[in-house]
Amino acid sequence: MKRLVHGLERDIGLGRYSVRIADAALREWFRQSNKPKLGKLTWDDYHVMLNTITQSFEHMPEKMNFRYLHPVRLQDPELGRGKPYSVPVSYSDTQNGAEPVIAIGGLINTKHRFDFLANDIHQDLRIIALDLCGRGGSGWLAEQTDYSINTHVELLRQFMDHLELPSCTLLGSSLGGSIAIRFAGHFPTRVKQIILNDSGPYISRVRRRQRSITIARHYAFTTPEEMFRKTAISMKHSGTAPDACLFYNQHYKTRWSEEESGRIYRHDIRAMLAYRAAATQNLDQWEYWDQIKCPVLLLHGLSSNTLSNKTITRMRINPLLSVIHIHGAGHTPSLSDGELNQWIADWVRDDKPYETDRYYHNPEHYESIFYNA
Questions:
Q1: How many CB atoms lie within 10 A of CB 137?
Q2: Is 304 part of a structural domain of the chain?
Q3: What's the domain range around 282?
Q4: Which CATH number covers residue 152?
Q5: With contact defined as beta carbons under 8 Å apart, do 308 and 244 qualify?
Q6: How far is CA 311 from CA 180, 197, 314, 330, in A?
Q7: For every residue of 10-33, which 3-state class applies, written as one string?
Q8: Buried b (16+ CB within 10 A) or exposed e, 139-174
């Protein structure tokens, strides 16, 4: 497999573009398997496909853990334990000595969402990706009411202390962006720069409610084909992404369940129910945004149904705001395209706001084999 991957890398001629190499490797597996029908794929085939993608990476971040101590002040007075309790938190770290960037995903994302980014720019930035409590490899909180943005802010503060980082750059996708904004409002000296992946200080309750309805459900994927189909449906408003990216991210959002004889989402459903309860109100964080004085890079999916032009216009009160509008992307671009990832790394290193907005168009056209809604 390694020989195949290196051969594909030479053919593509773009060694840092990890998703192109991974997607080419996946397609080569499909071709060598005589292009089986999706309904014939087994879970054994599924794991071979995952291994094909994983082996294409050259610089896998190391998986690590620390203990988050959930304070009494963030617990419900009636439902809380009345004393702090600890939760194991999983994260990944490229540990390359470069400028540190803490990456925080969305509602059901895991740290692996940022593996393509970490591979593409491993020479430029140190990518540290965090599993929020109730997601990925992290432990679950004791009560549904413990899940909140304020809890995630406290988790981030303790995490930075654990890493001995007095300050760093924050990268937040969707919910991760909301956390970054509030954190910077509370702890301005601890944030050098912020990268917001299709996230802003305001999200309407209409959009939040739409999202809450789809995520606060239990799904059991009993065949790979069913998993591909439902993933394609759920991602149809997010824009195009290579099959390898969709496969890889969805795999780490799920786990095998013997009881269900299939894969189910690995997140704590109570975290989604907490979001659904909060989604009855607009998310309005302008008070925190107005306090942010550091440089901010906004990645805006031009097909996004979450980040409005009106919100972007008001965000420009920060004179250090830079904006990249991304063609063919909806809410939270996948951060799997190597050229865009290099733009992100260059912005972090240059530390200069753009004079005018930039527009990114991925020259690659990815024709899906597995994900057709």
A1: 17
A2: yes
A3: 64-212+270-360
A4: 3.40.50.1820
A5: no
A6: 17, 14, 5, 16
A7: HHHCCCCCHHHHHHHHHHHHHHHC
A8: bbbbbbbbbebebbbbbbebbbeebeeeebbbbbbb
**Is residue 258 one of the residues assigned to a domain?**
no
Compute CA distances 229 → 38, 226, 369, whole Å: 10, 5, 11
Rounded to the nearest angstrom, the gap between the alpha carbon of residue 188 and the centroid of all alpha carbons in its chain is 23
3-state class of 248 per DSSP?
helix
| Eight-class DSSP state of 76 | -
Inter-residue contact 236 to 225 (CB < 8 Å): no
DSSP of 153-175: HHHHHHHHHHHT-SSEEEEEETH
Judge residue 54's burial from the number of C-beta atoms within 10 Å of its C-beta, 0-12 exposed, 13-18 middle, 19 or more buried: middle
Helix axis angle for 243-253 and 18-32, nearest 10°, is 90
Helices 175-186 and 149-163: angle between axes, nearest 10 degrees: 70
pLDDT digits (tens, 9 = 90+) for 56-96: 999 999 999 999 999 999 999 999 999 999 999 999 999 99
How many folded domains does the chain comprise?
Answer: 1
Quote the pLDDT of residue 347: 98
Q: Which helix (H) or strand (E) holds 287?
A: helix 286-289
Inform me whether the pLDDT recorded for 270 exceeds 50: yes
Q: At what angle do helices 205-215 and 269-278 cross, to 10 degrees?
A: 160
pTM of the model: 0.95
Report the alpha-carbon distance of residue 24 to residue 134 in Å, rounded.
Answer: 33
Residue 325: predicted pLDDT: 97
Structural domain includes residue 139: yes
Q: Where are the beta strands (DSSP E) in 48-136?
A: 62-70, 85-93, 99-104, 125-130
* Beta-carbon contacts of residue 153 (< 8 Å; ≥ 6 apart): 179, 182, 183, 186
User: To which H or E segment does residue 229 belong?
Assistant: helix 224-234
Residue found under tokens 């290579």: 242
Tokens (6 digits) for 65: 């853990």
Q: CA–CA separation, 146 vs 70, rounded Å?
A: 9
- Quickly tell me which residue has 């050098």 as its tokens: 192
